[in-house]
Design goal:
The chain is mainly α. The protein has three domains: about 210 residues, no CATH class; about 90 residues; about 70 residues, no CATH class. Helices cover about 60% and strands about 0% of the residues. It contains 17 helices and two strands. The protein has a two-stranded parallel sheet with strand order 1-2. The longest helix has 28 residues.
Amino acid sequence: MLWWKFWEKRNPLFLVDPMIAAGIAVDHFLSHKRPFSDSDWRSPGIHIPSEHEPLIRACVIGYQLFIYLRLIEEKFGPEISRIIREYQLIALSRLPDQMANQTSELLGIIARAYEVATNNPMQIPDHPNAQVPVERPMALYLLFFEMKDSPYYCSPNRQKVGDTPEIHDGLDRVLADCLAYGKTVALEVFDPMVQMLELKPESVAGLLRKAPLSTTDSVYMELLWSAAPGCYERHLQRKYRNPLFAPALRIVTQDEVDAARARDALEAEALSKQVNQFLQSVKRASATYSEMERDRKRVAELMQRAAEVGDLWAEGAASKLYWGIISDMEAAVINNEKGAKLLQEANEYYVRHVLLFTNRFVAQFSREDSPIKPEELVPALLTEDVESIKKFLSVGGNDDESQMARRNLASEALDLVMEVETRGAIIPDVDKKLEALGIRRKH
């Protein structure tokens, strides 16, 4: 089957017809390639009784095919997605064992489960704003109402009465975990492929996308963000639908945003108390020079903590106090050569340390409980502005190890940029950012 061999060439964009687009997922399915390999349907670390493996595998594979079609729909619209699905079934109809009919039925089952789950989201008692992953209600619907091999399947008569049995062996959670894992793998494989596809205009004439997908129809969700996000919410913003990050990391739920916002709010509240307590304790008018120096160091710590938390009020209050203390120190060292030298050292410390570690990205990556994982450093850094990149590179010494680390960082950044650009994505100020990393590209 050679429909899809163009993919191996990895050109930036491919003009194809819907049959070729359909052949991508079909080939992976028939060849047991990712995301349809023997291990890509089973969530790691989850025990699945052997008698339930065929049931769960069928559900996950159906969901992975469904994810491919949803990505197609998200980019090209529902009409084109429907055409591509029909081409998939045509290709499968040439195979024995009625595979086309079985696949069509399975896709219908998954589509119904997804629709019911998104239209009827589950809620956690006492946590009405908490968002349960869509795979959880999907699993219940599949086990109760769709999959006849399920030990909990309800006949149509029982469905009308609403007499659903109690699940006592955790099979619903096992299925939900496997569905979520299967979706993650499917996105890792299919999202880059779909982003590289473009359909030949003559092959889709008249099949225009008339309206954007609704929130529940999309693999991604439109989210409500804070006007001034703190550390944890900001990192979710970096990742959300950002082509620099791996596909699975681009998916962010409102529940995750709300949890991050709550954590940021707790940190901001604790920091506000610290800043207010310190403001009340400072006696600028009667302070000795050594007391000013002590206070200056403490304020510098608060400034860095404010950058770590990402709290605008604390940043402003601490910065105003810092420069007030510096002004007092300048007045105190007039005609004092020793004091002037100490003040010069304080100013050098500000440039060398405070100025760097009050940059939000530097501070938030450097904190011990940073949400920015080491493997996310390169895409996160490329998401920031040029000035933040320069300041991040200024951290550390000029020893051989530090210089090697900077060169490796620049090399990884260039590789990532080239990979993302081959998929047609645009990175704002990319050349300026690469130049800040020490890379000049010839165009």
